[in-house]
Amino acid sequence: MSSIARASSRALITAAAAASTVLVGGLATAGAASAHVHAEADHPTPGSTATVTFRVPGESDTGALTTELSVELPEVTSVRTEMMPGWTARLDRDVAAGTVRSVTWTAAPGTGISPEQFALFRISVKLPDAESVSFPTTQTYSDGTVVRWDQPPLSDGGEPEYPVPALEFAQPAPAQPTAADTTARWLAGGALAVAAAAVTVALTRRRS
């Protein structure tokens, strides 16, 4: 192989290695960015009852398990938790106000979410009458690490390091007129037309 060919081969190998490093680094960054606690619901609307799902990944760099998850609620009046094997759920109630302030799931001994896993925590809740709702969440690990997911979006629209799980509500469609409403509108329109015709006839007679 000539020296020119060897140099070309070395250049190609170096370029390929550099491209692979950039690709792997990009994938790792994308994976880390998406590994957040998320809140999801199917077509939530203000004031409706919805099933909200919290998707919780294990994120410990030391291999610790997620053993507790606490979600703050906007002092709602109706909450139910889904049965989840290996976990117990506790509602923090304000008895005087008749509301629920938070829900906390605690893993049984030897149970938890590892860094290679995620878990789904679901509640049935009556949503507030607003355009959106946030659920500040605390994730606790078996090694004592506590992570607070409570940061709002950045002023420039970017995502903070620990974004708060939130739902944007779909606005309900405007009510469609019923058959009775349509008939009433036609009758009202007809009455106005008859009245206008009567006024026209009266003016014509007066002029003649």
Describe the structure.
The protein has about 210 residues and is an alpha+beta fold. The protein has two domains: about 35 residues; about 130 residues, Immunoglobulin-like. The protein contains two helices and eleven strands. The strands form three sheets. A five-stranded antiparallel β-sheet has the order 5-6-3-9-10, with no helix packed on it. Strand 5 and strand 6 form a beta hairpin. The protein is elongated and about 100 Å long. The chain starts with a helix and ends with a helix. About 10% of the residues have low confidence.
List key phrases describing it.
membrane, YcnI-copper_dom, four-stranded antiparallel β-sheet, alpha+beta, Immunoglobulin-like, 208 residues, 2 domains, 29% helix
Q: TL;DR of this structure?
A:
This is YncI copper-binding domain-containing protein. The chain has about 210 residues and is an alpha+beta fold. Helix content is about 30%, strand content about 30%.
